Amino acid sequence: MPQINGGTKICGIFGYPVEHSFSPSMHNAAFEHLSMNWAYVPFPVRSPDLPAAVESVRALGLAGVNVTVPHKQAVAGLVDELSPAAKLSGAVNTVINREGLLAGHNTDGEGFVRALREEAGLEAASAPVLIIGAGGAARAVAVALALSGAPAVFVTNRTEKRAVGLCRLLSDGTGCETAVVEWPCETEQMGEKRYLWEDVLNSVGLVVQTTSIGMSPDFDSAPPFPFHLLGRGHTVVDLVYNPSHTAFMKRCRAAGARVFNGAGMLLHQGAIAFELWTGRKAPLEVMRRALKEGIGN
Ligand code: ATR
Q1: Is 72 assigned a catalytic role?
Q2: Handedness of CA 181, 269, 96, 147 (dihedral sign)
Q3: Residue 158 DSSP code
Q4: Quick check: pTM over 0.85?
Q5: How many whole angstroms separate alpha carbon 134 and alpha carbon 270?
Q6: What does the alpha-carbon distance between residue 93 and residue 82 come to, in Å, rounded to a whole number?
Q7: Which of 157, 114, 152 is nearest to 138 (CA)?
Q8: Dihedral sign (CA 38, 44, 46, 52)
Q9: Digit-coded pLDDT (tens) for 164-199
Q10: Which contacts (CB < 8 Å, 24+ apart) does range 197-204 have?
């Protein structure tokens, strides 16, 4: 525990519920490691209280906050300025207080791109991408990939109109080439879809699973997918990190693809937020250890 005194800088996280967040242990471990007089506090904030909570960042002189479910979109309308990724995705997960001016960022997407580079050795700009899902997580990742130069983004989603909306947002906002792909059915029943999916998977290098399917306790579920069309040239990231190996990851790995879970994105979104608030390089391995202990418990 840090010694709280007159010089302690405070940051934290707004969400509801927020008690399960791994961010406090990750950031407080980093502050302790660097002997910084900072503390990171979880704040349970209900939706009606959000405007007052955001105002309190200014009033109480907090250094900044992370924002999580269900507030990421609402906070985008409550801060003074937005980063390009936050503006385009319409979601903020990190607020910085610069002497009373509140700037909203989206380090989820940037964290994904950095994890891709540092954990998987893959540049966002190196190959077209397939995104499974079209919700908030898909939007953050797809926007960051498009802004980082991904040559094309394919989107498939159970509810097709949300995939259409995400593709439109990407092509209008970044000029990135996009296409909606029909939601896959079980491999054996693919019929005509087989040729479509062969084309898509021949052209993409990265597949990102952004839905909540397979998340604990739903261990055995995976989205329908033509797993047999995957191979060694594919890198697959499942944004789920609990369990650390989802049923989707297992099937992709069995087909020959390289697979990663969502822990890298979680770690790097935290590292980028840390750097934005403190101006210091994040102690990545310390944060990784704290996160691993949290997820393990
Ligand atoms: P998040 O912010 O975590 O992305 P979200 O915005 O509610 O959450 O989006 C959830 C995503 O998971 C959506 O793409 C959703 O598909 P729909 O748009 O069709 O609802 C997808 N999803 C969740 N459960 C699903 C399921 N059982 N089968 C297929 N897709 C699912």
Answers
A1: yes
A2: negative
A3: S
A4: yes
A5: 23
A6: 11
A7: 157
A8: negative
A9: 999 999 999 999 999 999 999 877 677 777 888 999
A10: 197/226, 197/229, 198/229, 200/130, 200/154, 201/130, 201/226, 201/229, 201/230, 201/234, 203/128, 203/152, 204/127, 204/128, 204/129, 204/130, 204/154, 204/234
**Which residue lies with its CA nearest to atom 31 of ligand 1?**
211
| Peptide bond preceding 217 in cis form (omega within 30 of 0) | yes
Ligand 1 pocket test target in 71, 92, 166, 212 with most atoms within 8 Å of CB = 212
Measured in angstroms, how far is the CA atom of residue 272 from the centroid of ligand 1? 26
Q: Whole-angstrom Cα distance, residue 273 to residue 49?
A: 23
Report the nearest atom of ligand 1 relative to the CA of 183.
Answer: 29
| pLDDT, tens digit, 9 for 90 and up, residues 51-79 | 999 999 999 999 999 999 999 999 999 99
Instruction: Give the burial class of 66: count Cβ atoms within 10 A of its Cβ; 0-12 exposed, 13-18 middle, 19 or more buried.
Output: buried
